[in-house]
Amino acid sequence: MEKNRILNERVATDLATSDFYYDLPEELIAQSPSDERDGCRLMTLDRNTGVIEHKIFRDIIDYLNPEDMLVVNSSKVIPARLLGKTDKTGGDMELLLLRMLDNGEWETLVRPGKRAKVGASFNFAGILRATVTSIVDGGNRTVRFEYDTEKYKNIYEVLDEIGNMPLPPYITKKLENKEDYQTVYAKEEGSAAAPTAGLHFTDDLLKRIREKGVGYGEVTLHVGLGTFRPVKVDKIEEHEMHGEYFHISEEVADEINRRRANGGRIIAVGTTSCRVLESASTDDGIVHPMNAETAIFIYPGYKFKAIDALITNFHLPESTLIMLVSALAGKEQVMNAYETAVNEKYRFFSFGDAMFIK
User: Fold this and answer.
1) Is 317 helix (H, G, I), strand (E, B) or coil?
2) What's 293's DSSP letter?
3) Residue 257 CB partners (closer than 8 Å, separation 6+)
4) The whole model's pTM is what?
5) Could you say which of 12, 56, 202, 282 has the lowest number of CB atoms within 10 Å?
6) Contact 279/290 with Cβ under 8 angstroms?
């Protein structure tokens, strides 16, 4: 398997970050998931004609052809938010785990930072101890964890007991059920945020899709907060993405290539799956098995190599995610679709409604 860091060749653009702003009433930010995962609303956008349709998510099956293939991100969200105390003063401390490093330490986001000098230690529920080992770019801290290795097989068992789901700050309502922020196909632990486009699928809907003959493949991209970092530069091509680990198997890559060669569409479920496929493909559109880190930044001007369609949610204004969607469907069409979604009172962001760009 190839191991490297994937970047894309930046293209010059006249577009500014502010070109991706839209007004969103606060009441349209979904605070909880739909009563039925596949019962949320679905907007379809034809990227060739700009035509918009309004459906229910389970209607997605009507838009899929037997030769097509869905590619999902099966990364599992870990309860990565830890609330504890400093060993020195007993002051409140919050850690958000971002990713495990090769040496077993973790890169984390800490609050308040003034209590997290190198060497400082924190205690969480008397079960887990963290010691700051370094300060890295952006002010994040790397920490070393200690826990009872006879009682817990790994850090994930500890997190399951004392950790909290790392909901985005715009969700202020308490999550009643951890599984509501997990896709039904989540497997490999490692994400600090859910690949939310996949939250709309149920086991039954996926079964019916596969019975239709539509291909199904799982890739892994462990979602870090870098994907959601605000763009703070005026020129979007100057924004730097944080790297995220991804994996695509030989079996899935071969099936993607086979179906596409036979005229099928490759449909990415979520921007994370899209970024995996675009990172793992060569200019000829061939997808390769890979185990790497990607910092690919997709914005208008980017030439897609591997995907033909995208299932996604509605994203924050001026975010890298709305830029990615605009690269696929065109900025004007996407901004028009978002304006339509606001007028039609769609629900936005992680627990919100879905969009199918075809």
Assistant:
1) coil
2) E
3) 286, 287
4) 0.92
5) 12
6) yes
Q: What is the pLDDT of residues 131-145, one digit of tens each?
A: 999 999 778 999 999
Which is it for strands 5-6 and 290-294: parallel, antiparallel or unpaired? parallel
Q: Which of 48, 94, 71, 20 is nearest to 278 (CA)?
A: 71
Whether the Cβ atoms of residue 221 and residue 195 lie closer than 8 Å to each other: yes
The structure tokens 């020129």 sit at 235
pLDDT attached to residue 227: 62
Does residue 318 carry a pLDDT above 80? yes
Query: What string of DSSP letters covers 167-228?
Result: --TT--SPPS-GGGGS-TT--EEEESS--GGGGG--HHHHHHHHHTT-EEEEEEE---GGGG
Question: What's the one-letter identity of residue 338?
Answer: Y
Residue 2: per-residue pLDDT: 44
Measured CA to CA, the distance from residue 255 to residue 218 in angstroms comes to 11
Question: 21 CB contacts (<8 Å, ≥6 apart)?
Answer: 317, 318
**Residue owning tokens 């040496």:** 103
Residues of the chain with CATH 3.40.1780.10: 5-77+177-357
Interval 105-125 mean pLDDT: 94
Q: What is the mean pLDDT of residues 13-42?
A: 96
**Spatial distance between the Cα atoms of 283 and 41, rounded to a whole number of angstroms:** 35
User: pLDDT at position 3, please?
Assistant: 52
d(CA 61, CA 281): 26
Cis peptide before 66 (omega within 30 of 0): no
- Superfamily (CATH) of domain 81-162: QueA-like (2.40.10.240)
48 touches 357 (CB < 8 A): no
Percent of the chain whose pLDDT exceeds 90: 84
Burial of 22 (0-12, 13-18, 19+ CB in 10 A): middle
Residue 1 pLDDT > 50, yes or no?
no
Q: Which CATH architecture has domain 5-77+177-357?
A: 3-Layer(aba) Sandwich (3.40)
